[in-house]
Specification:
Blueprint: E1 2-3, E2 6-8, E3 24-27, E4 33-39, E5 44-49, E6 54-59, E7 63-69, E8 74-79, E9 85-89, E10 94-98, E11 104-108, E12 110-111, E13 114-115, E14 122-124, E15 130-133, E16 155-160, E17 167-174, E18 177-182, E19 188-193, E20 205-212, E21 216-225, E22 234-236, E23 242-246, E24 249-253, E25 259-264, E26 269-275, E27 281-286, E28 289-294
């Protein structure tokens, strides 16, 4: 059943959405919008416009401005426990942190003595560990990075130790790992495999993986197959539901993998994040645009 922009697959989705709200387009000047992250202490959103090599900033009062030009084809963004911006850069094939004075600290640019592929998305665990995915999208062409041959044997998921800075591979059985998000209790990590972008027979699903001692990944299961399109970025709300990008908009699943419903958008969605003072505003990066819609549930505040 479709009502306006909502498609209800399960009655529970009605309790997560606000049918009297409107989908708002906040900006439409991007080439490929990605990596939204909300700064509640500053009241603004940052997101990446990858091919245009910039990170943009939106505030309700001032609209959109350029936060960082020459962004090294920045993609995924998050915040660490100290509120600092952590960014995946395709162009430099590294994960960086922006310090309070604006200087850049490199957190990871290699594994086992070889350059990373092109870090894509990043999250921070409650223990301060930085987890990121490393597919090859940023080195496939000169559009979202710089074309190059991969040096890593696989497309892996990594963890950066918050104390030693050591980079450890925590998953090496993905084809193209992409978006990732922790469950509210930190005991499960959801990871998208978006390999279908270049092979129709390749994975287009989200896996739920057990987090062991906050440092490793254990048991794994496929949470959901995404149709149409692929899973790219994803987020989790305080109830444990998973909100993921898809070819028709945003799809929402419960923690068992049951589809609850969809928010339909006119563009293919790349990523999303919860924001606003109560974390009940869903900011959506979709192709050329940044969208906003209010929902009836708060996003899990992680970190």
């Amino acid at each position: 059943m479709i009502e306006d922009i909502y498609e209800y697959a399960d009655p529970r989705f009605r309790n997560l959405t606000l049918p009297n709200t409107q989908l708002e387009r906040l900006y439409d000047g991007c080439r490929w919008a990605e990596g939204p992250v909300w700064f509640n202490d500053g009241g603004y959103l940052l997101w990446s416009d990858i091919p245009n090599q910039r990170i943009l900033r939106w505030t309700p009062e001032q609209g959109v401005s350029v936060y960082r030009a020459a962004s090294n084809f920045a993609n995924g963004n998050t915040r660490d426990q100290q509120g600092r911006l952590v960014t995946c850069e395709h162009g430099t094939r590294r994960v960086t942190r922006t310090e309070p004075d604006g200087t850049i600290t490199v957190l990871a640019d290699a594994f086992d003595g070889k350059r990373l592929n092109s870090p894509n998305d990043v999250v921070v665990h409650r223990d301060g560990g930085v987890w990121f995915t490393d597919p090859t999208y940023g080195i496939l062409s000169d559009y979202e990075g710089y074309q190059a041959e991969p040096e890593q044997a696989g497309r892996n998921v990594y963890r950066i130790d918050p104390h030693s800075g050591e980079v450890v591979c925590v998953a090496d059985d993905f084809v193209q790992p992409n978006g990732l998000a922790f469950a509210p209790d930190g005991q499960t990590l959801y990871i998208a495999d978006s390999a279908r972008t270049h092979d129709p027979a390749a994975p287009h699903h989200i896996r739920a993986m057990e987090v062991v001692d906050g440092r490793w990944l254990g048991k794994s299961r496929v949470l959901a197959q995404i149709e149409p399109g692929i899973p790219d970025g994803l987020r989790v709300d305080v109830q444990g539901n998973i909100w993921t990008s898809a070819g028709d908009g945003i799809q929402c699943f419960d923690a068992q993998g049951t589809l609850l419903g969809k928010i339909l958008l006119p563009e293919k969605v790349a990523n999303l994040t919860f924001g606003g003072p109560r974390r009940n505003r869903l900011f959506i990066t979709a192709n050329t645009s940044l969208y906003l819609i209010h929902v009836a549930v708060a996003g899990a505040q992680y970190p």
